[in-house]
Structure formats: C-alpha cells, structure tokens
Fold each of these.
Amino acid sequence: MTSPLPSAAPKIRVSWQAILTGLMYGFMYIPILILGFYSFNASRFSATWGGFSLRWYYSLLNDARILSALRDSLAVAFCAVAISAVLGTMMAVGLAKYSFPGKGLYRGISYLPLIIPDIAIAVATLVFLVTVGASLSLWTIIAAHIVFCLAYIAVVVSTRLTGLNPHLEEAALDLGATPAQAFIKVLLPELMPAILSGCLLAFVLSMDDLLIASFTAGGGANTLPMEIFSRVRTGVKPDINALSVLLILASGFLAFLSEYIRFKGNQRRLK
Amino acid sequence: MATTPLAESSAASGWQRRLANLIQPIVLLLPSGLWLTLLLVAPTLLILELSLIPGFRLGQPAGSYGLGNYLEVFQPVYLQVIGRSLGFAVGTTIVCLLLGFPVAYWIAIKAPKHWRNLLLVGFVLPLWTSSLLRAYAWITILRPSGLLNTVLELFGLPGQSWLNRSPAVLIGLTYSFLPYMVLILYASLEKLDRRLLEAAADLGATPQQSFWKITVPQTLPGIAAGGLLVFIASLGDFVVPELLGGASSMTVSRLIYNQFLGATRNWGLGSSFSMLLILAVSIAIALLLKYGDRSAARS
Amino acid sequence: MPPTNPRKFSRLSPSPRFSVARRRFLQTSAAAVSGIVLSNCARNLSNNTAPSAETSPTADGTTATDSKTLHVFSWANYTDDELLKNFKDQTGISVVVDTFDSNETMLAKMQAGGGRAYSIIFPSDYMVEQMIELNMLMPLDRSRLKGIDGLMPKWQNPVYDANNAHSVPAVWGTTGLIFDPQRVQEKVRGWDYVWNNVDSLSRRLTMINDVREVFGATLQYLGYSLNSTKPAEIEEAYNKLLEIKPAIAAFMTNGWEDQLASGDLQISMAYSQDAIVLMEESPNLQYIVPESGSSLWTDTMVIPKSAPNPDAAYEWINFMLEPENSAKLVERLKFATPNEAAFNRLSPEVKNNENLFPPQAILDKCEGIAPVPQDIADLYDRFWTQLTST
C-alpha cells in the first residue's frame, strides 16, 4: 500500500509445495542451528542451558589433539587433491581424445570409486596394504584418498570436455604449437574452472572421509573425522559443537567459492 | 619462398603428431590407470579371494577355498542384517523421493526465476559440512532429554527414546541424502518442456492430470537416477547407523567394519559381505542402465 | 598352530574356478604387480601375527620416527594432561595418547599394522597372554625397570604373565553396574534387575563393547564360570542375552557418561574405573558389583615388538611405577593401583573408597578373564556377532 511499486513484488501463491519446501529447509538447517546454539552454552551438558559463554571455543583452540588432527586432515586433503588434480585431468583428457582397446573397461574402472560404498573400498585397501606389507601411515591414507579424488576430478573435467570445441587444440597444433604447448596454452585454461571445482569437491570429500582413513591410518596419523568419531563414541564435550560451527563456516565459504567458480566458468562459456 | 618453410614445418609437425598420438595416450592414461589398478582393482580382487576362504582370520593359517563364508551369510541372523540394510536403503529412497520431489518441483517451477539458483544452493549447502557432525547433531535432537521430546512435551505429548532405534536411522539417512535427491530432480524438472504443460492446460487437462501424464513421465530418468543415488549411498552408509542406530540396527556396513576393525576379526566373513555389497550396488546400476536405455528409446 | 593341518594359503594349487579369476586378474593388472600381490598374499596375511620385529619401524610415517615423542595406546581415563606435562618436564619426551575401547579392537588394529607408532600399550591380563602367544610383545629387561618390586604380592607373579616378564600391571578393577538410585524402580543388587525390568529399561541400558565381559557377566548370572568353555553354557548365555536385547541402547565401553548423568540412560555396565571418574562429577550415581559376581581385571603396560621408541617406553613405565607419581595420579584419576608403595601414600579417603578397593568379600566373588582355546574363542565371536546383529 505504501510501497511505491506494488506490482513489482513477486506474487507467490502459498501452495502446499511451498509450505513443504519451507519445512524441508527447516529440516535441513535446524540440526546445524542447534549445534551452533549449544556451542555457546556454558553448561557441560547439552540438555541444560547454562548461559552464554565462549569457553568451548577457547577449549577447542587449546586442544592439541584436535589441532593436530586438523593438520593431518589438511595434509592428506591437500596432497591427495594436488596429485589427483594432475592425474585426474590427464585421465579425463586421455579418455576424451583417444580410443583404444579396453577403453570401456578403463572408463568403467575409473567410475568405480564413485559407486562402490566407502566401506568396501576401505576394507579392500586395508587388505591390500597388509598383503604387500606396507606400513600404515599418513602416506597410505593419501594413497587411498587419491583413488576417489582422482575419480571425482576426472568426472567433473570430463563433463566440461564434452562441451568443448574440439578444434581449438587442433588449430593450435596447425599453427605450429607443440602438443605440450597446445595442451597448456589452449586446453588447460578452458578446463581450469572444471578442474578447480573438481578439486574443491574432492577436497571436501577427503576432509569428510572417515572410513577409508580409519582403515588405512597408522603411524600415529589421525584425521579430523577419525578424532570426531572417536569423541562421539567415547563421550563428547561441547567443544565439538564449537568445532562444528567453525567447520560449517569454513565449508560454507568453500561452497560459496565453488559456486563462484561455476558461475565464472559458465559466464566464460557463454561468451 | 614464403611457402617452403611452412610446408617443411607442417611435415615435421605431422611426424611429430603421429609420435605424439602414440605417446600421449600412454602418458595421459598410464599413471592413473596404474594407480587405480594397484589401489582399487587389485584390492577388490584380493577381497574376492579372501571371501572364498571360510573363516579367514589374520595371523591364522588359511583354510582351503570354499563357499563357507557365503553359506554363513544365509544364516537367519545375517539375512536379517541384509534385510535391514535393504529396508533402510529402500525406505530412505522412498522418503527422499516423497519429500524431495515437491521441493525440487517448487524450486524449479514455482519459485521466482532469479531466486532458483540461490534456493537450490541453499538447500544443498548442508552437504558441505561434515557428515559425522550432522549425524551427531541428530543425537542431540533425538536423545530422550533432547529437543524433540522437549517440543513434544510442550504440546503435552509423551516423549520417548527415539535414539538407538530404526526410525532414528531412517531420519538420519533421509537428512543426509535428501539434498542429492533434490539436486538431481531439480536438474530434471528444469529441463521440463513447459509448452507441453501449457498445451495440456489448453486442452482442458486438470493440473493433476498433467502432473501424472506429463511431469512425472518427463522426469522419470531424473527420478530413477536420484533414487538410485540415494539407494546406493544409504545402503553403504556407515556413520548414520553407527551413531544413531545403537545396538538394534546392525547393517551390512557396520558388520563389515566390525569384522575388520572391531572385536570379531573374521576377515573371510567380512570379505564375503563386502562382495555382496558391491554386488547389490552393481545390480542397482545395471537395472538403471537397462531401464535408462528403455526410457531413452521410448523418448 | 598344529602342524598337522596347515593347508597354507601358498601351497594351494589354484582350483579351476579360481584360475579363471586369476587369469582375469592378470589381464586387468600389470603382470608385475599381480605377481607381487599373489605370491606374497599367503605369507603376509597368514603369518602376519604381529607387526614383525624385522620390519623397520623407522621407515614409518611422519611422527613415529621422532625419538622425543612417545605414542601410547590406552584405555580412556588412564592419563590426563597433568601426567603428560609432568612426564615431559621430567624426561623431555612428549606423549601422544590414543584410546581403544576393547582389547579385541586394539588387537585388530595392531595386527592390521595400524599400530606401529605405539611404544606402550595397555592390554588387559588375558590379552597379554594372547599377545605373548602371538609373539607380539617385547620381553622386558628387568634391569631397566625401577620400582617393580614395589608391586603388591598378588601382582608379583600373575597367572597371565609369569614374573611379569612382558608386562607391568598398571591398573586393576572390577566390572559392574552404575545407575542413579532415584531413577530405578527398585533397589539394584545385580543383573536380576535388568532381566526383571526389560520393558521399563527399553533402550536405557548400555553394556560394555566387549564380548568376554558381556558373556562373562551373563554366564556368572546363570551360575556358570566367567570363563566357561562349554558350548552349551555359552549358547545358554547367548539366549539369555537375547531376552534383554530390547533393553540395550548400545554396546559402548565409554560414551554413556553424559547420557547416564542426564537421565537418558538408566543403567550402564561399566568398568569401575570409568564409573568412579563419573561419580566424582555426579555424586548421586551409585556403582555396584553384581551379586552374581563380576570380572576382576588388570590392565598392564607392555612394549610391542614393533615399538619405534622402546627407550621412551621404559622411561614411561618407570615414571608410572615411581610411587610418588603413581600416588598423585591415583588421587587425581581415581584408579586402583597394584603398586604397594603408591597405595601406602594415598590419603585415607581414597584408600577406604570401596568402589576403588573393594572389600575381600566382593573380590572373592570375582574372576579374572582367562584366554580360551581358539575354537571356543571363535564360538564366542560368532555369538557376539549374532547378538550385535539381531
């Protein structure tokens, strides 16, 4: 009524779908909000409210175990993603450009990590590592994480490759570029958004992996999900709530970054 | 004079290109191929081998090959475990479909156009957070002194112990995988040809008729893909049943975990369950491919 | 292992069924790789009784090589920050503690090679015996142990490890029930209460995540030995346990504390040590040793053969044996010490805590868990898997 542009306001008929959708948004966010709420609870027990306090954030930041678990997790995720970015991109390009006998099998195997449940991969990797007598350490976690990071990055890059103009690289080659030059100067920039968003996805999955890390960890290596799992099972203090809030903020940032990259990629594509 | 060097260089590049065509695939594909063979294919075949050695335990002499582990799976108690896992997976798929479809439909069709992306991102944002912590959040809600009972008691309803029962697992699994369902259904609904709906309306079809005759058939591939994804993910999930299920909801993945890292260390039995899990997932994929082909052929 | 029946993995000629799989295996994987895998498969898996001594632990990961770091694999509640700080101040060695919740889980982790960073482990009595049999433990050099003579006579020559050749007793205790007297229906004297109140306990009972503890308590309740090796008795115990399955919320060794204190749980089966720690915070709780008896356990400190840092391990054991340190730790963490010299330094209040040091009448009803023959152990395992699966 007082609004200067009443007609500009979008008219949303409140249908039952809209109500259900609203409820589902609530369903998705209430658990997260509750964790956030309790992280400021001074009381040790989550059932009672003991007043506002930041003590769990202090206790978290002074918790050497959590910090070292975070360090191990980041080390695993960065190493695994860095190696997978190179290998996965090469694999996607190779599969897109060449046909050879056994290509179907190769492609099928490369999709397996996306399909086979984590527990089956974890168990198989453990048996394999014990069989070859490898001593478990941080490096065995990284080796096992590369398997699924590789697959995810390759899939994301593949979808980008199918929408790409195949003549660009040939044109570069015709103009006298070496295959390596053509790859680096022409193909790689085109693929960069896909590689980055694949890396982000792989990074988040690696940071979230409990099973594969549990089965391949050794030598004192302890990732963040392993630490959280053991705390949830053996009794938690509310500093876990504080940790959740910080992790959620961090992953919210990553999600934003990923969307931004996707958006930029699409823009580029449309140009 | 200007043409000769060009011809020369193109000849050289032709030779180079042939060599490159030979070497490039090897350079590009060998490293990841080796890695996948070493850390995925070989391990899975090892598990297959172990599953054929009845009662294999680490550190004990291995028995002879046999199908003992697979026969043991048919004991009533293990059939119950398999049935429960399948039940959780099917139940989660159905609930996700029932809840996810209206959400995806509203976002894709009803919501204001420039809000759609944001709404979708908002819905799948929780996927980016730790799955362990999301399951843990449900512990604080479902425990007897938790939020759910507090709310129920406000309305004068009797509270009860929700945790450590099957419904808790179903809630947790639905919570974990609903965003995937919405994401896939959205992609499918977004491509829906609106002109068909308009045409149907012009021809006097009720919204319900056009929903069942047009919207659903058009999005069937999306429904199948989303359902399959949720089915596979919830069938193999370990964290949710482990944290929310307590003593009453042993699933195949928890059983496998216990045979390898838990108290009972029967690697043979664990391997056979692992192979069965892979088999179940493969069957689901095969069904989708067959079904997907048929629906593609129809359209 | 009996020499009569060792059809080892490696000696098997591949069956026709398997050779198909193997041919496919050779096709899909590089020949060299599969050669390594398959030829070592047998030896490595079957003989991998323990992280063997000859594999160099220094080639391990990142943290294990550091001689100034000691990795300890322990039950929850056996160490605290102050202990680790005092130890570091005195020896310059920093300690990283990882915890396990059952002996079997610990063994699984060690056997799979995931425990090669640990130089000190805290297995219980019967597990010490099993690990000695599996050749996983380093014999202790008595000349490097100071204060081992200060142990109580009962622990000078324990049945599970003659003359403490491989292990040093660290903590002992009982297994019992902890509950809030205000929240239970009637006075709790033992397992009777649980079997009589399955309905009202519905998902409000936790039991220890350990096959021998759970079956042992049930066997005792039925009037049998905690260490029964008779299949009929074990099966009877299994059937008895099925009766209370609807009451069990979860099998957990730790992690029930918060839920018990807040009333989400009514009763938890717990080790005395963990119960006493919680009762310090929530004095309204009560711990009992069931009338039918319970297990009397000793947790020990051992050095695995794969220990990357045995020197620091000896320092740790000596530090824990030192009466002054030990007494202070007992005062703080409230566990029962087998160390006579430390016991004598305790305050009367702690000395007279009956949950900590139960009177002889209660101890007489208790039994220690003893290892059982392999076929019986397999039977226990099978029933445990079934119990946890229903």
Amino acid sequence: MDHRQQVRQFVLKNFLFTDDANALADGDSLIGTGIVDSTGILELIGFLEETHGIRIAPEEMVPANFDSIDAISAFLARRLGA
Amino acid sequence: MGNPQRAEPARATLEAMIHTLHHRGPDGYGFHVGDGVGLAHARLSIIDLAGGRQPIHNPARTVWTVFNGEIFNYVELRADLEARGHRFYTQSDTEVIVHLYDRYGDAFVDHLNGQFAIALWDQVRRRLVLARDRAGIRPLYYTQARGALWFASEVKALRAALPERSRLDPAGLVQAFSFWAPLDPDTVHAGVASLPPGHLLAIEDDGRQTLTQYWDWTFPDAADTAPARFAGVEAAAAELRERLVDAVRLQLRADVPVGAYLSGGLDSSGIVALIRSFTATPVRTFSVAFDEPEFDESAHQLAMVRHLGTEHTTLKIDRRRIGEAFPRLIRHTETPVLRTAAVPLMLLAGAVREAGYTVVLTGEGADEVFAGYDLFKEAKVRRFWARQPDSRWRPALLGRLYGYLEHSPVGNPAFAAAFFSQGREHLGRPVFAHLPRWTTSRRALTFLSPQLRAAAAERDPLALVESRLPAGIGRWSPLAQDQYVEAKTLLAGYLLSSQGDRVAMAASIEGRFPYLDHTLIEFANRLPPSYKIRGLTEKYLLRKALADLLPADIAQRTKQPYRAPDSSSFVVDGRPLDYVEALLEEANLRASGLFDADAVGRLYAKVRAGRATGFADNQAFVGIVSTLLLERELRGA
C-alpha cells in the first residue's frame, strides 16, 4: 500500500469509523470538515511518526502539511524523499 | 397525578409510583387522594423533622401541596403571612406555599427563594399547578396519558404507572448527543416533558393548560452595562461579598447538620470560607481525589482544609470504580451522558450519607453566574480575533487557555488558529461561543444508525437552540449571550441534573447551591462584562470579593474544570468490563436499532487499544454505553 492509501485507511478507520472510501476525498480539509479535531491531529501525527520512523519537528506542524490527504501525501513525499 | 374531570387514581397506582422514588425520600411516604387528584410524596426530613409530613394543606383543607426541595426564605415569608393573619399548623417550609397561594394565586412562586418542584391542587377551582425553581435545580417531569396529567420528580415514577412511556425518543437522543442534554421541555423519553426552569404549568378544570414563564436569566442591553454607569469594581465587590454572605446564611437553614464539598477551586473554597467567616459551627467537608494527576486536585483541597480547619473526608477513586458504578449512574440519570464525571459525585454523595449528613453546600453555579468557564474566555479571544482575521498575535492568546490538559487543543499555535477560526461565519449569533463544543459533541452522531443519522441531518441544531432564546438576546453583551446559552443548556440540562440532583439523590443527599440564589444571579447579570472577565482572568469580581478569605494561590488559581477518566474507565488492565462487553456485542448493537454496529465496533477497538484520547471519541463512547444501558433499563432487561 502506498503512503496515500495508508493515510487514507487510517483517517477512514480512525476518524470516520468506516470502510467507505467515498466518505473522504483526497482534497477534503480534515480540519474544516471537522473530521480531525485538536486531539485528532496529535493522533494523526503519532501515526505518521510511528509508521515511518520519523520525528516531525514543531515548525513542520502546520495545517498546510496535514489538512488533507493530498497535503499529507505531499509532506511525506518530501520528508521521505520518495 | 391530576385528573380534574374524572375519578381520582387508585391509591395502589400512587404507591407503585412513589416507591420508585424511595431514594429521594427514605423518611416516609404521604398521600392525598380525592376529588379528582392523587398526590404522593417521599420525604427526606430536613426542616421540621416531626411535623413536616406532606401533603400539606391550607387551613380550609382546600389547597394541597407536595413539593421536593427547600424554600430558604420560609422564615421571613411566614412572619409576613402571620402578620397578615395567616395561621400555621406546622413549622415546615412547605406550609408557606399553600398560604402564599391563598393570598397571591399563581404569583405565589414569585415570593419563593429556593430550589423546588411543586405540585399544588386547588380543590375549589379544581385546578392543578406545577412549578419549578428558577435555575432548574429540582427536576419535574409530566406527561398526558389515559385522560389525565401525570407528573413526578423522575421519569421512573411515570413509567411505573405508564409502561407505554418506556420508550426512547430518537430526537431527544440526538439533542443529548449534541448539547449534552435535551433542551427543556424535551427529554429522551417519548411523550414525556420536563417542566422548564422558571416555569409554572396550570391545568384548569376544563382541561386547558397554561405554561407561564415567571423568571428568566435576563440581562440588560449591552449599552446599560457600560462600566461608566457603575460605582466601580471595589464597590461591586463589597456588595457581592454582602450578598454572598446572605445567600450562604439562608442556605444553611436546616434542622440537620450541613456539610460542604471542597473541590480545591475558588468556588467551593469560597463557600466554606464564607461559612467560617460568620459562624463558629464546625464545618464538615468532602472531596473526590483521583489516582491520576491529570484529574486530581487533592493538593489544593488539602491546602484549603488546613487553611479552614475543617473536618474533612477524601474519597479516592480510580477508573475501575467509575466503570463499575456507571450502570447505577444511568439508572439514576435516566438520560445518556457524554462523560463519566457524575460517577465520582454519586459515590461522594454516598460517603456524605455514611458520615451522617443529609445536606451539602457546593460551588456549582459560580462559573455560569460569574463567567468562569474557558468557553467564555475562548469566545472572547475568537471574537477579538475575528475582528482582525489577519492578525498573527491575536490567535496566540488562545495559547493561554487549556494549560491543564494533557492533550491541549492549543498546544500548537498553528493548529489552534485553524481550529478556533472555525465558525467565524456565525460571529453575530448568540450560539457562537458554543459552536466548538457542540461540533465536538456532535461527532457522536457518526455512530447512530443510518436512519437516525439521516433524521438528525434534517434538523439544524443551531436553529433549534435559537428558537428557544429570548427575543432581545441580540442586544445583550456577547458575554451575557454566552452565559444565557450556558445556563439553559449545560447548567440546567446536565450539571444540575445528571451531575447534580440525580447523583446526590441517589444517596438521599440534598445539594444546595448558594451561587444560584436568584437575587445573586440578578445582581451579577446587571454587572459590566469586564467585572467578570478582566483581560483573560475569569471570575474577576468573585475573586476580589473572596480575596481576604482565601490563601492567595487559591484566590488566584486558574480554573480547572472538574473531570474524570472517561472511556478508559470501561477497559481495565486491557480488558473491557463484563457488562460493556455484553452491551457492545454486535448482536446487541444491531438489536437496539440505535447505532451503526460497524462504526461502534471500530470505536470500541480504538478504546480497547487505549488509543481513544480525544474529547470526541471519549464523549461518543460514553454516550453510546450510557444509551445502551438506558435502553436496557427501559426494556426492563
């Protein structure tokens, strides 16, 4: 499974509690739609750090990097050099 | 139960109803049956232990009343009535009700300072009057069935006579999952209404019903609370101190010993310090402590105990006890809850009873009356920021909130800005302050069955709240609007009910709340908002009024909301408690028809793995478990 699919699965199962892939589009704002709340963002970052063995620095923790599946995929691509 | 047009109910029916309320009044039952009405009462003896048995009647025996609660100013009312020629046959506070009704009719309720649910039968005019106190401290439910009006302090008494009322109302459930409790008069029980606080319901001989609001949390127009119109904050603090002493003095009236809760915060410490300031009577205090530092306030509690020299009991509570006692909580609340925090208070009430006390004073209400909640400060920052959305430093003020949380929503400034900028399009609405909280709560709706979710999606929750707000609320200061919404949703619906009356009465304990004295509320509501929140210091005036009575660290301490471990209480050492396992079995979930079994299954897995750390997940999980417990109770299983 590629990074994008992995993150999608995590968000669907962990925040939307569903398998229905149609419940989320890759460009949807996770914060704006209320899918991820203030504690959810900590869960999401914890998941990314654990899965990829990375440490996300405080200056990287901005909505521009994590507010959608697209944004997270782009962030991971940069960080993992993929 | 009132039935103006037909024969009175059978005594056996009344007995079946009142027996379900034994915990509210273990000191004896009283009945009045005749002429189309049946009244039953379970007595908790507090005033006039020998002569206060209810029902109580007027001298002509034509007006009868049963009531739950206290009329604190009965001494003054009685003296006034006696001066006007009224003669009394008991020493109880109840008797002033029938005399006031004789003299003033339905306006009797305006004279009462207290916490009460009253039923009054006027035999001559063949009319029934139900009245509930101003803040909503004592509960009162009613329903129309079989050609009669039935009423009781708890729904279980109605269900004892009317099994057809044992049914959940999905619309009420959606409200409970949105606002933590349905908005009065709605309940989660199909066909059952809650008499709203500050209201009086009259049922006439011809069956006509009139619902009248006799009191409300009204505030002046914003222009009338400009500080320039006041004599200054020092003068207001001095007046507040006098009013607090009056309120506490009045609420200490009882013919049994009175104790107090001590949470470690400003409000309850203030009550105990006030008692100590004008009486040498020893004060007995009680508090809850947790073994987890995030929730525990015992260091502050013990500092106050040393300062005040009270005899103190600490009840230490862990997760397992919360989880195990939770089904008992729901039998008492009769409504779903989104947090477990009421459980420790139910257990604490048991400890109070064991210590030989029947009455406790608490600090409840100070946060609503004097603006103590983070929600008020958060709204102030959100409004301040919304006026200059491009400002970089305005949202940084959010970083000064929520410091007590392990997983703070403002730990990261960039995300805090993203989260708290939401709902800006609702800036001018009275519900603006509450949007973040309700958005979090409403994530619990994800777990409802597709049918219920679809029905919920058709109703606009903000419009529902706004349809119950007073017409002139838009002219009040923003803080006043926030306080009003808070008083009508969380305070009356949850804090005074599931976390107040119900858990105290579970152990036959009466809670008293001096900060909710209605004359104190009226005084506070007239003050400038800047006297309540100064900068980002909450309850500024209250701190000032109590400053010389309290150690500086308590008087200046930032509010820490009372919380308890939530979803983690149901899974101990990696294993779910047995009843939780049974309730959340897929077959049971599907049979209930209330929830989406797949979605609940995923949340349950997250809770079992210890990964449910956020507010939304915890509230949803506690809401689901409590709903399933309630549903089981209603099925009689």
